[in-house]
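Hey, I was hoping to borrow your eyes for a little while. I've dropped the whole record in just underneath, so have a look:

——
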Amino acid sequence: MNLSIFICLLLSIPVVIYVLVIPLFIDSTQAYYTDVADHSDFDNSLSLLESISELETDYKMGKLSKEDFESLSLEYKRSYLEEKK
């Protein structure tokens, strides 16, 4: 009986350390937040796709002429393809 209690005690020590001691050394914000994305994570191609979508919406609403829509759309699409290379 004493051996089983001793084994349980030995096995519970790492759990106690993990639950009680380690959180004292972790930054409080690190437990709740992931790292903020740096500037390299920004994908310019997504911005270009959103611009193309907005152009289509503006054209359908009559805010842009057909010539303006086609030229701007072509410019954004070229930039998108260059970005994806």
Observations:
- Residues 2-34+42-84 form one domain.
- The CA atoms of residues 20 and 80 lie 51 Å apart.
- The mean pLDDT is 82.
